[in-house]
User: Fold this.
Amino acid sequence: MRHEEKVLAVIAAATILVILALVSFSGYYSFINRMFLAGILASLVCGVVGTFVVVRRVVFMSDAIAHSTFGGIGLAFLLQSALGWLWFDPMLGAALFALGAAVILSMGWTRLSVREDSVIGVLWVIGMALGVLFYSLVDPRKVSLISPESILFGSILLISEETLWMMLAILVAIYVVVFFLFRDLQILTFDEEHARISGLNVPLINFILLALIAFTIIALIQLVGVILAIAMLTIPAAIAGTFTDSLKSMMLSAVTVSLVLTAAGSFAAIAMDTPPGATIVILMGAVFIAVMLVRLRTHGGGAAARKGA
Assistant:
């Protein structure tokens, strides 16, 4: 690990400790404390996977996967209602649909037979449409439904202890996969053609990357919802990418950016009594715009000075 990466890792760890200290001394209710813990876990996941998404330029693929999960959640509630399968958790349905979308998007024949953006668009709208259809067929007298608004935009009331354990399990699994396959994922992320020439199984690595994205979105759904998950996945990594070209440094920077902005957005939501998911994403978007404006002014000024010289 390079010196820069060590420093960034220490900063990320210190940020986590500061957030935990602030929350512990604030005296919030337990469900609000769970929101902050979920934010920390989500940031640790998003910083790593989001970096691959931004550098690989698969943001719209990720969005299609996110929207497809709504169909899986609706299917889970329908199966609970119609067949009495109370064990079929909505997050299990979301995972099945997300992985199904990942399989379709990673298959080479979709690029040969139809435009990739068309496949993304179809998966996007079908997932949402199926979710709406399945929800309409559920008998609310048999099943305790989660409102579509909570699924789409997140709700801190959905974050239970079981949710935190699920997010921790997803975090550990993703970190293990990235640790062992980092070199392959790095090669694929920067140059798919080079990955193919190097003898990598590109379709398989593509699927693994999209599967990592799918499980990251599952971890984000209950915090910020299906619609806003893609913002939390990509904005911190995009901000971090403006400061470094190293993949590992970008990951660590993205984790820190996500930790700070998620915690700040959560505190702001509590103070202003606004939806936490939307507040977090708006803050991230505002910081991203500010960073872009500063970079534009800095590079624009430098270019003007060189031109004048």
